[in-house]
Structure formats: C-alpha cells, structure tokens
Automatic annotation (TrEMBL):
Region of interest called Disordered, as start-end residue ranges on this chain: 1-101, 166-185
Keyword Membrane: yes
Record-linked PANTHER family: TRANSMEMBRANE CHANNEL-LIKE PROTEIN 6, TRANSMEMBRANE CHANNEL-RELATED
Listed GO CC annotations: endoplasmic reticulum; Golgi apparatus; nuclear membrane; plasma membrane
Polar residues bias (residue ranges): 23-33
Main subcellular location: membrane
Domain TMC stretches: 530-636
GO molecular function, one term: mechanosensitive monoatomic ion channel activity
Keywords per UniProt: Membrane, Transmembrane, Transmembrane helix
Gene assigned in the entry: TMC6
Organism: Macaca fascicularis (Crab-eating macaque)
The protein, known as: Transmembrane channel-like protein
Biased composition annotated in UniProt, kind: Low complexity: 55-96
Length: 788
C-alpha cells in the first residue's frame, strides 16, 4: 500500500527509508508576495507528501486540519505558520533543509491538530478505480453533448442499475455553458439554460402526473386487478366483457340523446289527455305515467320541430310556422337509430378484430413459463397492496400455465374417447330438447295471453310473461350445468365453451319466439292502438325482470348455498363462479336493449344502470361467496369468443329484427313520428321529394339518398367490406403466427449451435431450447467460468 497525495501521481522510483521532513520556511511564494498575503503553516515530506491544510488539485478547495491521536509510527511537525500553497521545491531549498533532520524535536511536543490527515491521501487498493472514474467522466461528457430525448433513450438502454442511471442523469443535467456564461456575459446564458431546463422538467413532471391521474380514474381499475389476482383470467374476462358492454351502450345512448331525446325535450308536444298518476308499479312495468314520456316511441312528434305543436288524433300533419327550426323529427328518428347501429357495428367489428389479434398473435403460451417466472415482476411497484396484488396475479398465471401444460401431456385413450363422445351426445340431445321445450312453452303461454284480453287490461298482469321467460332462463342453465357435471371433460376451457353453446341455443330459441310474438301477433292484435309503445314497454319489463331474477339468483344461488355449506354441511368449499351462464345473461340483456332501441330510445340508459348495479353485486358476491376455479385454466381467447357471440348471433339478430320492422311493418296511425306513413322507411322518401322541390342547390342530397341509402347494392357492399376486413385480419394473424413459429425454430437451432461451441467439453448440450432457456444457460455458464 502506497500513500500519495490526491491529484498527484505516485513516484516511479522505489520509495526510500520512511523519514519525515518538516520545515518552517519564512519565505512566501511569488503569488503570495504579489498579493501581500503572508504564508503560514508547516510542511512535512515523506517521500512525496503535501502540506497539511493545502487542498489537492482534484478536490478543489482547502480542508481544515483535524485532530489525530498520538502514534509512534507517524511523525508530526511543529505548529508553525506556513503558506496556503507550497512553492515548488528547488535543489537549493532541499539542500538547506537537510541539516534540520538531526535537530528534529520529539513527537510529544507537537500539537494534536498539527498532525497530517489521512483524508488527503488515497489508498490505492484497486488499480481499476481510476479507470472507472475516467470512463464515467467520458460518459457524462458524451451524455451532456446529446439532446434530452436522446440522453434519456441512451440511459434506458444501458445495462446499469437504477441508482447508477439516476446518478448519471443528475451529472449530465449540468448545463454545458454554465461556467462560460458566468465568466462571459454575467451568467445570462446560464440562467436562461437553467430556466429552460426547469420549465421542461416541470412540464415533464406535470405530464407524468396527469398520465398517472388518468390511469387512476380508469373505472374499476383496482377491483379488476384484485379479481384477476384472486380468481384468474377466466373470471376476469366476465367483468372485462361487462365493461365493454357498458362502453357500447354509453356510445349509443349519447347519439340518441343528442339527436332524438334532446330536441323532443326542447319542443315537447301537447299531451292527448290528462297525465296519469304514478303508483310506483311503473318502475317494473313501464306503463302508466311512463307511457307519455320521452321513454317510449309514442311521445315523439311527426313534424318539423319549431314550436309546441299538438299531435292530432285524426292523424293529420302538424303545420310548422314559417321560419321555425328546420328539424325533421321522423327523419332524425330513423337516421339516428340507423347511424347508431352502424357505428356500433363498426366498433364491434374493430373490437373483435383487435381482440382476435391480441389473443392469437404469438402462439399463446409456448415458451412463456420462463418469461413469467423471471420477467413478470414490475419493479416500479412500491406500495404494499399493489405488490400483494402483483404476487397474486403471477401466482394465478403460473397455475393456469401449468394446468394447460398438464392437459397437453395427458392424452385420453381410445375407449375413454368413445365414452366421452357417447356422454356428450346424450347431454346434447337433452339440452336441445330442453331449449325446444322452453320455446314451445313460451309460444303457448303468449297465445294464451293474447286470447284473454281481460288479463291484459290489468297492469300487474303485464309482468306474467316476463316472469315466466325469466324463470325458464334461470332454471334451464342449471339443468345444463348438471348434465355438464356428468360429462368427462378433459379441459375446463372446453367445458366452458360447451356450456356457452348450450346456453346460447336456449337464449336464441327464446328470443326468436318472442320476436315472432311481438311483430307477428301483437301488431295484428293492436293495429288500432300504439303497438310500438307496447313492444317498448314489453322489452323494458323483460330487462327489469332479468335484473331482479339475477339478484335473486345471486342471493340464493351463491350466498345461501355458501351459508348452508359452511354451517350445516361443515364444508369449507364454496361455489364456483359460473362463467358461461353469467356471460350469456349479459348477452341476453344486451340483445333485449338492441331490440328495443327503436321503440324506447332511453332503453340503453336503463341497460347502463343495470350493468353498473350488476358489476357491484357480482363483485361483492364473488369476493364473499365464491372460490377460485379448482382447475385453473388460461382464458387467453375468452374475450374474442364473447365479442364474436355478441356480434353475430346477438347484434346481427337485432339488426334483422329492426330492419324488418322498418321496411315491412306498418306503423301505428295514432302515435309516433311515422303515424301517417305506410312504413318507417318511407320517411326518407318523403324528405327526398321535399328536397327535390326545394331547388337545385340541394339536388345532390336526393342523389345521395337514392344511390347510397335506397340502393341495396351499397348495403351489401358495406357488409362485404366488413366481412373482408375480418377475414383479412384473421389471415394476417395466422401468417404472423407462422412467421413467429419459424423464427422460434431458428432461434432454437442457433441456441443449440451457440451452446455447443461455447460450453466446455463434456458439458451436455440440450436437443431443444428456446430463447429464454438459451439466455439463462449462457448466463449460468458465464457465472460459473467467472467464479472458477
């Protein structure tokens, strides 16, 4: 170990015998003589030693001497006045100081504060320390020469710890023209640079704060993380699908309120009679005082809105005042509903294509185990609650991956497959018979209600058909669930898909029977009345009854069963969350909403309130009464399946129902915006004839309506384009998956070659390995060679 002053280099010649030289010169350096300042202090030389109290060139400033304890092996010097900076020694000075060595005073006569300090000396234990400091200084200079964005990008890509990156960032933030500006223009440039940098930093911090605030305002963010961590991605997919439905209804309701409900509220028509008194039962039936409101079709006017205009009962047209608001209510009603369905279709197709690309893009779970183990933790998480949620998410994810891997490793025998096929066939026959029986029962009961008009006159009797349909919707899925328990399914994913298909067939059979009941039978019976109001109120009742039965099912099917299982049966086992039945209930309610948009423009608002209540009820029941699936499974494609079922059976069926009502069914002659027309679609033709008579300035609008709206070729072209986009997206994703598989094979082959050339002789080389395995094997072998 060699002692040398800071900022100086060690002498190349070998050090002589350790002898201390102390001197108290009375002369001063040339610089001090010029300034008139005396030179005080003392100096000791031990080889090449600096005076106490004189700052080294690297530290940049003087240091106060510190008291040191007495030591027999460390010579001290008398406390005499010396200069703050020592002049360079000359041969004459050295020769003059040589006789003083023999007359050096004893160690005990010196003051403790006059002893030299070890702080002025470097202990060179590691010769690479100076090289690291030089490299760091060069790196800081290089970072200072870059722009702020390039500097941050380079720091992110460096293989350093967060503390080292933070230190480099702080060092590189010093403005380059700081000292230059202070020496030249009085610090103006430096102050401007610091001010500009402070403003940029403040704006950056404000942006990060706003971004974190927007993420915190995401609805149900913490609740969804908690559900995903405790119950897995399969249960989480149900709540994500509910959130998607909420967005669809909010978008549709925004259009309807802006172009239909809002203008009609601003110009309300005169009521045909006194307003009925509300009794409270209207919240369930939708009749009574709700009939003559903007809730239903019959309240809307059939004229251009310019002033409060009464709706004549004889079916005559309201005559608008000249100079009024040119807002054609029949045309706005028809085209707003059509535009809302078109925008919903585009959004739904885009969401389905995006979800398909996300779920099928990278070949799902192949080789993801090592990434999940070593790369899943987010080191930015600092809160205890967030870290616990992240632990739950990673643990559940590993369970799902391992369960899926075990299913692939255990194939079933031929006899087992035959028994499974026989059980599946029998269960499918029973489920199809159940769906057909439910449809026949609903048809018979609806015919009975039509033939008994005395029961239809009572307001409470209006709830009978929705109650019967709701009970069938509630009981039939339990029968399918019992049959599914008897089937030997290998995969829980396949079990959920089969349950979804069976429940979907049941819902389609019930909805098809109800659509025939509304547009086939009710229109003929209520031809002299406002049948549109009756259909809108019927759909409202079905929606409300579905919500009430869902609450009862949650109460008795989950809460009561958990209490009985814990108290009476002494079991710790809780019921599992039925994903298939709950998802089909959401699709069923959304289909009812789309069917009733034409007859009740505020029905999406009712659906929004229902979805909000369903989320909180289901979340509370799930956390309190349900347990995680006993057989964990990875729901990587569930969102795509849900959106596909929502698009093709549900949305497509609702669109066909509304198109038939617009083009084929004659509107009521006593209510609504289409009361004087033969069909709802004729409102567009009337508007075109009015534009043709208005003048040549608007002649292009009739052309657009004739060739883009009335022409069925355009409708088929748009439908074909949507289907082509879906097909091309599927083909692109499949091509990407093939390319990814080929790249993985090439990486595996390159990994094997790399390991064969890098590993020492006799080390076993695996026959197959992925990118993560190759990386971890090389890291382990590198660490082993370093330690050896």
């Amino acid at each position: 170990m060699s002692l040398r002053p800071r900022g100086t280099r060690a002498a190349r010649s070998p050090a002589p015998t350790m002898k201390a030289k102390c001197t108290t010169p009375s002369t001063s350096s040339s610089k001090n003589r010029a300034s008139g300042r005396p030179r005080r202090g003392w100096s000791c030389s031990r080889g090449s030693r600096r005076p106490q109290g004189v700052a080294s060139r690297r530290s940049g400033g003087p240091r106060a001497p510190r008291a040191r304890p007495h030591s027999a092996s460390w010579p001290a010097c008398p406390a005499a006045p010396l200069a703050a900076a020592e002049a360079p020694s000359s041969p004459s000075t050295t020769a003059a100081l040589q006789p003083r060595r023999s007359s050096r005073p004893l160690l005990g006569n010196f003051v403790l504060s006059a002893r030299p300090s070890l702080r002025l000396y470097d202990l060179e234990l590691d010769p690479t320390a100076r090289e690291e400091e030089e490299k760091q200084s060069l790196l800081v200079k290089e970072l200072q020469s870059l722009a702020v964005a390039q500097r941050d990008h380079m720091l992110r890509g460096m293989p350093l710890s967060l503390a080292e990156k933070r230190s480099l960032r702080e060092k590189s933030r010093t403005p380059r023209g700081k000292w230059r500006g202070q020496q030249g223009s009085g610090g103006v440039c430096s102050c401007c640079g610091r001010l500009r940098y402070a403003c940029v930093l403040a704006l950056h911090s404000l942006g990060l704060a706003l971004l974190s605030g927007l993420q915190a305002l995401t609805p149900w963010r913490y609740a969804l993380k908690r559900i995903g961590g405790q119950f897995g991605s399969s249960v989480l997919s149900y709540f994500l699908f509910l959130k998607t439905l909420l967005a669809f209804n909010a978008l549709l309701q925004l259009l309807l309120v802006a172009f239909i409900v809002g203008p009609q509220v601003a110009f309300p028509p005169a009521l045909p009679g006194p307003a009925p008194i509300c009794t409270g039962l209207e919240l369930l039936t939708g009749a009574g005082c709700f009939t003559h409101t903007v809730m239903f079709y019959g309240h809307y006017s059939n004229a251009t809105l310019n002033q409060p205009c009464g709706s004549p009962l004889d079916g005559s047209q309201c005559t608008p005042r000249a100079g009024g608001l040119p807002y054609n209510m029949p045309l706005a009603y028809l085209y707003t509903v059509g535009a809302g369905f078109f925008i919903t279709c585009i959004t739904l197709v885009y969401s389905m294509a995006h979800s398909f690309g996300e779920s099928y893009r990278v070949g799902s779970t192949s080789g993801i185990h090592a990434i999940t183990v070593f790369c899943s933790w987010d080191y930015k998480v600092t809160q205890k609650r967030a870290s616990r949620l992240q632990q739950d998410n990673i643990r559940t994810r590993l369970k799902e991956l391992l369960a899926e891997w075990q299913l692939r490793q255990s194939p079933r025998s031929v006899c087992g497959r035959l028994r499974q096929a026989a059980a599946l066939g029998l269960a499918w026959l029973l489920c199809l018979g159940t769906a057909l029986g439910c449809a026949v029962a609903i048809h018979v009961f609806s015919e009975f209600l039509i033939q008994s008009p005395e029961a239809a006159g009572q307001e409470a009797a209006l709830l009978v058909l929705p109650l019967v349909v709701g009970l069938l919707n509630l009981g039939a899925p339990y029968l399918c669930r019992v049959l599914a328990a008897l089937e030997p399914h290998d995969s829980p994913v396949l079990e959920v898909y089969v349950a979804i298909c069976r429940n979907l067939i049941l819902k389609l059979a019930i909805l098809g029977t109800l659509c025939y009941h509304w547009l086939g039978r009710r229109v003929a019976v209520l031809q002299d009345q406002c049948w549109e109001d009756f259909v809108g109120q019927e759909l409202y009742r079905f929606l409300v009854m579905d919500f009430v039965l869902m609450l009862l099912d949650t109460l008795f099917g989950e809460l009561v069963w958990r209490i009985i299982s814990e108290k009476k049966l002494k079991r710790r086992r809780k019921p599992e969350f039925d994903i298939a039945r709950n998802v089909l209930e959401l699709i069923y309610g959304q289909t009812l909403t789309w069917l009733g948009v034409l007859f009740s423009p505020l029905l999406p608002a009712v659906q929004i309130i229902k979805l909000l209540l369903v989320f909180y009820v289901k979340k509370t029941s799930l956390l309190a009464n349900c347990q995680a699936p006993r057989r964990p499974w990875l729901a990587s494609h569930m969102s795509t399946i849900f959106l596909t079922l929502l698009c093709f059976p549900a949305f497509l069926g609702a669109a066909i129902f509304l198109c038939y009502a617009v083009w084929q069914v004659k509107p009521s002659s006593t209510c609504g915006p289409f009361r004087t027309l033969d069909s709802m679609y004729e409102a567009g033709r009337v508007w075109v004839r009015y534009l043709e008579a208005a003048g040549p300035r608007v002649s292009w609008l009739p052309w657009v309506h004739r060739y883009l709206v009335e022409n069925t070729f355009f409708v088929f072209l748009v439908s074909a384009l949507l289907l082509a986009v879906i097909y091309l997206n599927i083909q692109v994703v499949r091509g990407q998956r093939r390319v990814i598989c080929l790249l993985k094979e090439q990486i595996s082959n390159a990994c094997i070659l790399l390991l064969g050339s890098a590993l020492p002789p006799g080390f076993p080389v695996p026959s197959h390995c992925g990118l993560s395995s190759c990386r971890f094997l090389l890291w382990g072998w590198r660490g082993k060679t370093k330690s050896s």
